[in-house]
């Protein structure tokens, strides 16, 4: 399967800075059939960036969206409004779940709304540190996976990507909190098995499974060579051109 490198810029860069940064990335990225590069800039930068985007090199994702199509939802941007601007949407990121109190309903409705609007969902899930300590990782992953996909028709499943992002391993420099390849391997195997139980092996193996949480050029290769890992979701390191480009190069080496 193709590998995917997704950069989540979170709430960083002004529109001008985003444009300069995209220019820098596009100068250096060579197109590849084996590695898909996706960036998720802040929503305010999406439309301006489409004017300079080379879609053969990079695709755009939103970091979020509202599942209502239109209406009295002050401050929100819907998947219907994002349609045509982005190919992908990050949905259910732990910062949305825990800082902005997004519910399981918000997430499953968002996955359905994205698909309805021809946007491929990148469904994020992962356990917190407390859940991990209490041995609840698999329960959490199963609940978030089954819940997030509950409105997805079987034929639409291959449009979805699933990103395993253990909350305790996001944006950390503490080595004890960096997820080990074994941690990631256990989780993604469990996710693949759960998808297989739900939808059968043929469909389950079409769903790219990504890993995210403190990925850097130095550890990207170790995660990408885990069987069942089909890509990476990168926060901090996606904001530094040398690091993001380095990870893309690693993915190309692993893919070839
Ligand atoms: P990080 O962020 O790479 O900075 O840990 C990952 C994410 O939150 O998606």
Written description of the protein model:
This protein has 256 residues and is of the alpha/beta class. It has a single domain (3-255), classed as Aldolase class I (TIM Barrel). It has eleven helices and eight strands. An eight-stranded parallel barrel has the order 1-2-3-4-5-6-7-8, surrounded by six helices. The longest helix has 19 residues, at 181-199. It is globular and about 45 Å long. It starts with a strand and ends with a helix. The relative contact order is 0.15. The mean pLDDT is 97. The site of 2-phosphoglycolic acid (PGA) has 13 residues, from β8.
Low-confidence runs of at least 5 consecutive residues: none
Count of individual helical segments: 11
How many β-strand runs? 8
Strand content: 5-15%
**Rg result:** 17 Å
> Looking at the structure, what is the overall shape?
globular
- Class by SSE composition: alpha/beta
Q: Element order, helices and strands?
A: EHEHEHEHHEHHEHHEHEH
At a glance:
The chain contains 11 helices and 8 strands. By secondary structure, the protein is an alpha/beta fold. It has a single domain, classed as TIM Barrel.
Note the topology.
Blueprint: E1 3-8, H1 15-28, E2 35-40, H2 43-50, E3 59-62, H3 79-82, E4 88-91, H4 94-99, H5 104-116, E5 120-125, H6 129-133, H7 137-148, E6 161-164, H8 181-199, H9 201-204, E7 209-212, H10 217-224, E8 231-234, H11 241-255
Parallel strand pairs: 1-2, 1-8, 2-3, 3-4, 4-5, 5-6, 6-7, 7-8
Bound molecules: 2-phosphoglycolic acid.
2-phosphoglycolic acid binds next to strand 8.
């Amino acid at each position: 399967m193709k590998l995917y490198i997704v950069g989540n810029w979170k709430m960083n860069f002004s529109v001008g800075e985003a444009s300069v940064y995209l220019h820098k990335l596009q100068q250096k990225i060579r197109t590849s059939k084996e590695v898909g590069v996706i960036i998720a800039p802040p929503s305010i930068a999406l439309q301006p960036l489409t004017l300079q985007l080379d879609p053969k090199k990079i695709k755009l994702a939103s970091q979020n969206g509202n599942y209502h199509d239109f209406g009295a939802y002050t401050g929100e941007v819907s998947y219907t409004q994002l349609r045509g601007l982005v190919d992908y949407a990050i949905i259910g990121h732990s910062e949305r779940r825990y800082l902005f109190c997004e519910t399981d309903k918000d997430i499953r409705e968002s996955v359905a709304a994205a698909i309805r609007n021809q946007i491929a969902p990148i469904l994020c899930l992962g356990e917190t540190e407390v859940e991990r300590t209490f041995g609840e990782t698999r329960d959490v992953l199963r609940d978030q996976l089954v819940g997030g996909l509950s409105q997805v028709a079987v034929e639409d499943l291959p449009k979805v990507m699933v990103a395993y992002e253990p909350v305790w391993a996001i944006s950390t420099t503490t080595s004890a909190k960096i997820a080990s390849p074994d941690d990631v391997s256990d989780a993604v195997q469990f996710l693949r098995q759960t998808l297989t139980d739900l939808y059968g092996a043929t469909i389950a193996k079409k769903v790219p499974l990504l890993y995210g949480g403190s990925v850097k050029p130095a550890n990207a290769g170790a995660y990408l060579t885990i069987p069942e890992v089909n890509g990476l979701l990168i926060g901090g390191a996606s904001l530094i051109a040398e690091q993001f480009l380095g990870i893309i190069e690693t993915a190309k080496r692993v893919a070839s």
